[in-house]
Amino acid sequence: MEYFFKFIAIWFTCLFKFIAGPILGAAANYSLLEIIMVTVAGMMSSVAMVTFLGDWFKSHWTLKVSEKKFTKKKRRIVKTWQKFGPGGIAALTPIILTPIGGSIILTAFNVPRRVIMTYMLTSGLIWSLVLGSSINWLLSIPFFDFLLR
């Protein structure tokens, strides 16, 4: 039962911040496969919620648009979009953006749901593998293991 609660707590944290999955998974002594599973499950849960609710939100609600159309932040997002497309946004989502932020950007640019889910799943799998194995490798160094235990 304790394993289940740990898994749910890490999953819930991954809904909002991707990097928390590999860190908390390593702290819970999860294997690399378990770290990847919980991290990707959390990320994809929030991506699915935002993607499907985002379409509903856009069709049922109207928001007031501020007078200032292009801010520095919006220009950066558009520039990244023009340079890399949906794959670039999905690749940057786990590291720079949050799963929610990346999903909102992709939904705002009217990317089809299937493309959003595919790119985000691929990005989540790759980044969770890289981060999970990096953290496990760091923890195998005796100096870091001594500091953390």
Q: What can you see in these coordinates?
A:
With 149 residues, the chain is an all-alpha fold. The protein has one domain. It has seven helices and no strands. The protein has helices at residues 2-14, 20-27, 32-60, 72-92, 99-108, 113-140, 142-148. Helix 1 (2-14) packs antiparallel against helix 2 (20-27), helix 1 packs across helix 3 and helix 2 crosses helix 6. The longest helix has 29 residues, at 32-60. The radius of gyration is 17 Å and the shape is elongated. The model has no long low-confidence stretch (mean pLDDT 86).
Q: Tell me the distance between the termini.
A: 24 Å
What's the overall geometry?
elongated
Question: β content, as a range?
Answer: under 5%
Low-confidence stretches: none
Mean pLDDT over all positions: 86
**Helicity, as a percent range:** over 70%
Estimated radius of gyration: 17 Å
Number of discrete helical segments: 7
Q: What class do helices, strands and sheet pairing give?
A: mainly alpha
- How is the main sheet built? none
User: Strand tally, please?
Assistant: 0
Topology:
Elements: H1 2-14, H2 20-27, H3 32-60, H4 72-92, H5 99-108, H6 113-140, H7 142-148
Helix pairs in contact: 1-2, 1-3, 2-3, 2-6, 3-5, 3-6, 4-5, 4-6
Protein name: Small multi-drug export protein
Keywords: Membrane, Transmembrane, Transmembrane helix
Transmembrane segments: 35-54, 84-106, 126-148
